[in-house]
Amino acid sequence: MFSGIFQETTIPVLQEVIGFAQARHSVLAGNIANLDTPGYKVRDLSVEDFQKRLQEAIQQRHEPAMPRSPGEIGPDQRPRLAEVAKNAPTILYHDQSNVGLEHQVTEMAKNHMQHNLALSILNSQFRLLTAAVTGRA
Q: What is the 8-class DSSP label of residue 45?
């Protein structure tokens, strides 16, 4: 009953954005920690690839499900929103260039802002749901 309410909101999308931002933050922090390590190759998570996969999952969520034949049992075959990050085998790449500290700190700050924005929106979504359920504003 309640899972249907949550699936029709932006909550699953925001969960994916927050999870991606947390994973990317760890990778960027590792880059900063190892910048002076000889032979270390800078790593990052592809924001463009993640955004493309997330957009595809959102679009598929709004498409009508394929009708099943009578007697067919099983989950919907459309990719689920929760599978966005899991189904990305090329999301982690190794960069051959020597990226400086300033670039890594800038990327970390942008990632931090994206994470905080998603958390703020998620918090407001939960406040709206709480107000709707309790009848209080």
A: E
